[in-house]
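Supplementary notes (optional reading)

For those who missed the lab, this is the record we used. Protein: Integron integrase. Length: 339 residues.
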Amino acid sequence: MASPFLESVRAQMRARGYSLRTEKGYLTWIKRFIYFNNKRHPRECGPDEIKAFLSWLANEKHVAVNTQKTALNALAFLYNKILDQPIGDIEFDLANKQRHLPVVLSPNEIGAVIAALAGREQLIAQLLYGSGLRITEALRLRVQDINFDRMTITVHNGKGNKDRVTLLCPELRDALEHQMRLGVAIQAKDAEKGIGTSLPHALHRKLPKADRSPQWAFLFPSTSYCTHPYGGHVCRHHLHDSVMRKALKIAVRDAGIWQKRVTCHTLRHSFATHMLLGGADIRTVQELLGHSDVKTTQIYTHVIGDHFAGSASPLSQLFALIPLAKIDKIEETPATYVA
């Protein structure tokens, strides 16, 4: 049970329509800030304490720059929106800006991973790679989000609370239709028990019968019931992302891929990279991925090497000048590997 103060912050976040993921993240950072200041109430703290906390994250905890930004956003929300104590501009030690290129699988590796999966998990992986979805976006899909006439998928409340439309692979039609029938059948059985599908925010009050209508059924329903975080009633949510993550981990191992760190998001990275390699315009890929800034999408040009297209390694020039036979080969001697 959280403290009355944190519960009041939670209530105000829900009144403002923040997502549950943002709510959880902000409350975690606010709680860490309180403990960092020896459980002093945030009203008793100010810019100096915030500066010390953010600098501690950078210098002592060595967090990534995006992690530090999330902590800052949480505290800015707390002081600017809740406590009405604007913090203004704060100078603090910035975390090291780490630039990591996304891990991308080759088409053969993608095929091996998908082949190592089966049934529901295989379909989810195909949607991640075939439509560039995030794992949460795929699991939140409902029957009404699939458009077979236009072969598109509508993603609601994606990252940044944005909606977008992305493409749908025609070869998935039969598998999706089967999954849709399964989701609707499960919803119908739940309705007989007086239980409906979970709906976002307060939609269950605005549309009382929507939780039992086929179009609102999840494509990938959970195997058990849960308590709705807003309404407090029993409902069926979508499948938890840990189910897919565990299945993918086993599939990657079975596919013999050990030199790359593969996650569900790797399939989305691979979608973007392979789209660009296939000749798709970067603006099109940006829209399909739902990026606000094209600079975010441009990271994939670094993965495929478009930023140095046409350049040649100086070693290639050396091979052109000197015949390969004239370059001495390195002889491996046992002495080289003696400890």
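If you only remember one thing from this example: The first strand starts at residue 146 and ends at 147.
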